[in-house]
């Protein structure tokens, strides 16, 4: 008796069917993985929200957006000038996040950087200390500056209308800015209507940076060319179109509190195709951005985390940034 096997055509048909099934299943698997990553991102922000309120209960206020202090004896001896320290919200929250070892390694009596831009000796151990809670799992595979531990979660400095969203000058109307000392009583817009923290993408080649040899800034998330901000306020056209000096500094270190790193504004909408514009560390417009499809996660003052879509209107987005702007925002507006 002769055994009848599969013909070549039958085998190819079976392989083709399996390939089609895999092609149909793969997007669902990817979507499930991203849903899990986004859920973890939400959980990270909720943990930070609990820590913020524990900090407020202990200290009677929210943390500074950044500590900026005048020159002390340490700096006089080293011949430096200007304002220094600049520790971030995340750095000050560390003892309220079961990160006691991180907090113990921080030395707030010394500036973050010395006069040549290097980490001060008392803080070198924490500069490259990565903390999983400070990172969004969807923003993986990014090349960040060696020797630094990045963070995705930033404090909201306001709507960006005052002196370009200045964290140092002007009158920021958000909850976190340089030497801020905001209490819940000062959040008169309502804690459920006031953004505290949101996300950013990491590392060099980020949203505001032209690719080498190309004059057109490129969106690294979708490869769609960006358009520049047309309302420059105190920033010059050149500063907004050529921000190459700060290409590697987007949220490169969770320890650092400034506009390049752990602060942002609501001047432009989430994941906007308008590229961010920074003038050094002190002010500019850096909006919330994420690797999540269609929007960003935002922590509000009542501890809730909401997914804000890219399609939100700019006035509504700006209103959510102010702590005492008096705006009336409907819950169905976002």
Automatic annotation (TrEMBL):
InterPro entries to which the protein is assigned, alphabetical: DUF1559 (IPR011453), N_methyl_site (IPR012902), Pilin-like (IPR045584), Pre_pil_HX9DG_C (IPR027558)
Pfam families per the UniProt record, alphabetical: N_methyl, SBP_bac_10
Every DUF1559 domain range: 30-313
Cross-referenced NCBIfam families: IV_pilin_GFxxxE, pre_pil_HX9DG
PANTHER family linked to this entry: GENERAL SECRETION PATHWAY PROTEIN G, TYPE II SECRETION SYSTEM PROTEIN H
Protein name per UniProt: Prepilin-type N-terminal cleavage/methylation domain-containing protein
């Amino acid at each position: 008796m002769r055994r009848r096997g599969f013909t070549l055509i039958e085998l190819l048909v079976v392989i083709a069917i399996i390939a089609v099934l895999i092609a149909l299943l793969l997007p669902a698997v990817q979507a499930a993985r991203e849903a899990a990553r986004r859920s973890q991102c939400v959980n990270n922000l909720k943990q930070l929200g609990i820590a913020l309120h524990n900090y407020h209960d202990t200290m009677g206020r929210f943390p500074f957006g950044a500590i900026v202090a005048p020159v002390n004896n340490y700096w006089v001896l080293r011949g430096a000038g200007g304002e220094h320290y600049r520790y971030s919200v995340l750095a000050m929250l560390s003892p309220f996040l079961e990160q006691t070892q991180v907090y113990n390694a921080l030395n707030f009596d010394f500036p973050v950087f010395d006069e040549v831009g290097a980490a001060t000796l008392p803080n070198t151990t924490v500069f490259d200390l990565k903390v999983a809670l400070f990172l969004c799992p969807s923003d993986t595979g990014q090349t960040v500056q060696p020797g630094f531990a990045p963070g995705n979660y930033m404090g909201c400095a306001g709507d960006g209308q005052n002196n370009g969203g200045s964290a140092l000058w002007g009158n920021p109307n958000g909850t976190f800015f340089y030497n801020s000392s905001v209490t819940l009583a000062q959040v008169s817009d309502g804690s459920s209507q006031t953004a505290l923290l949101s996300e950013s993408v990491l590392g060099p080649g980020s949203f505001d940076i032209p690719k080498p040899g190309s004059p057109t800034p490129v969106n690294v998330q979708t490869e769609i060319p960006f358009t520049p901000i047309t309302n420059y306020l105190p920033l010059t056209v050149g500063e907004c179109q050529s921000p190459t000096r700060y290409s590697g500094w987007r949220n490169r270190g969770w320890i650092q509190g400034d506009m390049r790193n752990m602060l942002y504004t609501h001047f432009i909408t989430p994941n906007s195709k308008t590229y961010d514009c920074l003038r050094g560390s002190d002010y500019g417009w850096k909006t919330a951005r994420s690797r999540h499809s269609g929007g960003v996660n935002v922590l509000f003052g009542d501890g809730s985390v909401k997914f804000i879509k890219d399609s939100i209107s700019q006035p509504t987005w700006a209103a959510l940034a102010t702590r005492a702007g008096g705006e009336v925002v409907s819950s169905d507006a976002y």
